[in-house]
Structures are given as structure tokens and as C-alpha cells.
Amino acid sequence: MLPGPLLIADLSNHRLIVVSPQGRTRWQFPQLGDLAPGRTLLIPDDAFFTPDGKCIIATEEDNFVVSVISIARHKIIFRCGTPGQSGMGPNQLWSPDDAVMLPDGYTLSPDIKNCRILHVKTGTLPPVRHLRPLDQCLHPRPAQSAILQFDPATAMAYSAGSLPLAYSGATSAGSDIPVVGGKTTGGGNSSRAILLRPR
Question: DSSP for 87-114?
Fold first, then answer.
């Protein structure tokens, strides 16, 4: 039995759920009426609780948005990015991943194919800052090509060693399991889960 509730980004079923240690669903989003007209939650591949425990921040990497969801209200209260539209223009992201909210209310999120890290104040657009290494974006910009030619995992090596990270190419959506030295370091499935320990 798990020591605490489990938050699951159920990518293939387009939902977020919190499951009790006994395996019962304690919370689910979205349910009927949760989404305003025109709003969607599609293929959420990562989800984390905010530091105060009142919201969940979810990334939809292949739908190009980051959403903050109020647990009590069952509502999306903030969204960065334009659903279904990748790019680097106003309110556009291109493969956001693993967004986390800091205790000060700012959110950090890698914007992978734009070669930047966003630093966003919840409720404020555009992002406050783009943290980007100078002249280190090795793949074509969105205006040049929609095909990613740079894989950060294979292009960067450990700082103190010679083993680069590499993806097996066989992992399913949402798993992002790295392969080190030719051996898989973990198994993947279509959902991402985080174990929560009670305080």
C-alpha cells in the first residue's frame, strides 16, 4: 500500500486524478461542467501540486500549454500558451514540459523547442523572463523548420564524465525514460505519477 495519495497525469484519458493509498479516486479533473466553453485539457503529460497544495500545475507538451488548476474550484485559473498552436510568438510555447511553481508564485517551465526556460508570474502574461543560454540553440527556429533536429539528451554529456544521456526511442508518451550507457534506467507507460508523502 502507498504511504500517501498519488497524483496521476492520465495522458491517454485526458485527465488528472488523485488516487488514495487504497486505490480509490479521490479527485478528478475535468468532470462534467469543469471546463469553460472552448477550454480543453488534452494529453496532460506532467502534473505537480503547487507549494501551497491548493492547485495543480499541468503541462500539455503536445498541446503547447501550461495550466494552473484550482483543486477546490475545479477550474483552470491560469493558462500560458495557445492550445494547439506551437511557436515563439505572443503567448505561444513549443513543447513545454515539467512546469513547477515556486513558493513565490512564479512558475518555471522548459519550453523545449524554443530553447528557453520560462519564468512566469501566475496571472501575468507575457512571461516575466526567458532564461536562455546565449547562442546554444542548435535546432532550426520555428520559422525555419517544424522538425526538431537537436535532442538535448544526446547532445549534452555529464559535466564530470563521458557518458551522454540518450533516449531509447521506444518509450511511450509521457515517460521520458533516459537510457544511460545503452541500458534503460526505468520503464514507461502512458501516465506520469508522483507519490505524495503526508506532512
Answer: SSSTT-BSSB---EE-TTSEEEEEEGGG
Confidence of residue 89 (pLDDT cuts 50, 70, 90): confident
CA-based nearest residue to 63, from 31, 19, 100, 94: 94
- Measured between alpha carbons, how far is 197 from 1 in angstroms, rounded to an integer? 13
pLDDT digits (tens, 9 = 90+) for 152-169: 333 333 344 333 333 333
Distance CA 180, CA 163 (A): 7
Does position 16 have pLDDT exceeding 90, yes or no? yes
Return d(Cα 186, Cα 105) in angstroms, integer: 32
Helix-strand-coil split of the chain, %, nearest 5: 5, 35, 60
Cell of 91: 503567448
Backbone phi, psi, residue 19, to 5°: -115, 140
Say if strands 65-70 and 75-80 run parallel, antiparallel, or are unpaired.
antiparallel
